[in-house]
């Protein structure tokens, strides 16, 4: 007899979990899938090409209605889960209860909205789902449409680039002194800013937001900065980060911290209930990149089948593409005592590389432009390899390790302590 498995949330991690279960344990589970969005799993990372017009939404769907139907999965889409009753082992949805033998909480994350005055005005949105994307697409149909994006991280820049590609005039407002400060150092962030500005996107770094102003129609009309500057806009996109969605788990009595706390097998503190994805907190860490979420899905599929498996939070690298700009970062690239930086800069070709060395180990890397060697640098960081014999030619990548490297003009290479 099949076990009754209920999953709350149909994000990318859930999609991968279902792939494993269907391939590796067909018929083992009678699956019911809840999702607050009125649809199933799609590649959320590809919303940016949908926004820019490169792809349609149908092209980024990973599990369509026919797939769920073919595998006998009961879909409760567009339905919020109101409560979980662990004593009775039931999930209480808006359209009734579902009994479970095993339950997976995969509620994902929610966008953080800065509580500025006016943050709840019509026309103030996050960038999280298809509805947000469609609102930005609709804006571009208006003549002289203007948008302000608060947040110069990856998500905010993707929103800005997508709207700009459709003809919307966009201003990005970022509190830090350079863009994507978590992934890039100052020089790389400034190269990225120059590339965005060349595409017609206005970028204001070191700018603090004060208030969101309403027009006569009650919708957003401008963002006011701390210095009194007003940035007119018809739409304001807030892209300043996400937080694990833990309220349902917390109300159920599941142990939570910043996220839903799980052990190495993705078990929560309540028997029979597991957690997966961006809502998870494991060994103090939260997860926003796809690679660890897919690792979680693989481990949880084995756990649900009663097989031995353990989730390990591995070192990950970040390889990104923003409006055609290739970026890579890995490890810890902060300055510090006992650390050296090797920097290669070619302004003409817009290539920048910075390696951070501590002792005889490569501990961090930031690359803008030519990221082909990113994987090789990442492996050195992850493995803790001794790079002392490679130090003189390390910045030039693996192709130069058996030959004397030649620094091409007009590039600049510097070593700083």
TrEMBL record:
The cofactors required by this protein are: FAD
Keyword Flavoprotein in annotation: yes
The residues covered by the FAD/NAD(P)-binding domain are 4-280
**Signal sequence interval, chain numbering:** none
InterPro entries with a match to the protein in the record: FAD-bd_OxRdtase, FAD/NAD-bd_sf, FAD/NAD-binding_dom, FAD/NAD-linked_Rdtase_dimer_sf, Rubredoxin_C
Keywords of this protein's UniProt record, alphabetized? FAD, Flavoprotein
Q: Can you name one GO molecular function term for this protein?
A: oxidoreductase activity
Ranges annotated as spanning the membrane: none
UniProt domain NADH-rubredoxin oxidoreductase C-terminal: residue ranges: 317-384
Presence of the UniProt keyword Flavoprotein in the record: yes
Q: Which domain of life is it from?
A: Bacteria
User: SUPFAM superfamilies, alphabetically?
Assistant: FAD/NAD(P)-binding domain (SSF51905)
Protein family membership: Belongs to the FAD-dependent oxidoreductase family.
Give the protein name, as stated in the record: Pyridine nucleotide-disulphide oxidoreductase
Source organism: Celeribacter neptunius
């Amino acid at each position: 007899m099949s076990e009754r498995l209920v999953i709350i949330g149909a994000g990318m991690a859930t999609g991968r979990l279902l792939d494993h279960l269907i391939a590796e344990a067909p018929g083992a589970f009678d699956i019911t899938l809840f999702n607050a969005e009125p649809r199933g799993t799609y590649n959320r990372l590809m919303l940016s090409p949908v926004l820019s017009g490169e792809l349609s939404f149908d092209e980024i769907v990973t599990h369509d209605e026919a797939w769920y139907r073919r595998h006998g999965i009961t879909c409760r889409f567009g339905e919020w889960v109101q409560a979980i009753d662990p004593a009775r082992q039931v999930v209480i949805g808006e359209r009734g209860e579902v009994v479970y033998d095993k339950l997976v909480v995969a509620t994902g994350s929610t966008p953080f909205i800065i509580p500025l005055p006016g943050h709840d005005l019509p026309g103030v949105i996050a960038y999280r789902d298809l509805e947000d994307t469609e609102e930005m697409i609709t804006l571009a149909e208006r003549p002289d449409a203007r948008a302000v994006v608060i947040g110069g991280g990856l998500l905010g820049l993707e929103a800005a680039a997508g709207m700009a590609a459709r003809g919307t005039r966009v201003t990005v407002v970022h509190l830090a002194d350079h863009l994507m400060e978590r992934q890039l150092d100052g020089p790389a962030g400034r190269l990225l800013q120059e590339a965005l500005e060349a595409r017609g996107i206005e970028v204001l770094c070191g700018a603090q937001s004060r208030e969101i102003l309403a027009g006569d129609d009650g919708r957003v009309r401008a963002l006011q900065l701390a210095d009194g500057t007003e940035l007119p806009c018809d739409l304001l996109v807030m892209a300043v980060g996400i937080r694990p969605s833990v309220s349902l788990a917390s109300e159920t009595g599941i142990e939570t911290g910043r996220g839903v706390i799980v052990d190495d097998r993705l078990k929560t503190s309540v028997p029979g209930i597991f957690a997966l994805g961006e809502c998870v907190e494991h060994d103090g860490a939260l997860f926003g990149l796809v690679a660890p979420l897919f690792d979680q899905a693989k481990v949880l599929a084995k756990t649900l089948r009663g097989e031995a498996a353990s989730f390990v939070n591995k070192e990950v690298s970040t390889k990104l593409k923003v409006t055609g700009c290739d970026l890579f970062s890995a490890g810890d690239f902060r300055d510090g005592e006992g650390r050296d930086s090797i920097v290669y800069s070619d302004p003409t070709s817009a290539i920048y590389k910075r390696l951070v060395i501590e002792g005889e180990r490569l501990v961090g890397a930031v690359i803008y432009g030519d990221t082909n060697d990113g994987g090789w640098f990442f492996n050195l960081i992850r493995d803790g390899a001794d790079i002392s014999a490679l130090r003189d030619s390390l910045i030039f990548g693996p192709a130069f390790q058996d030959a004397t490297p030649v620094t091409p003009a007009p590039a600049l290479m510097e070593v700083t302590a």
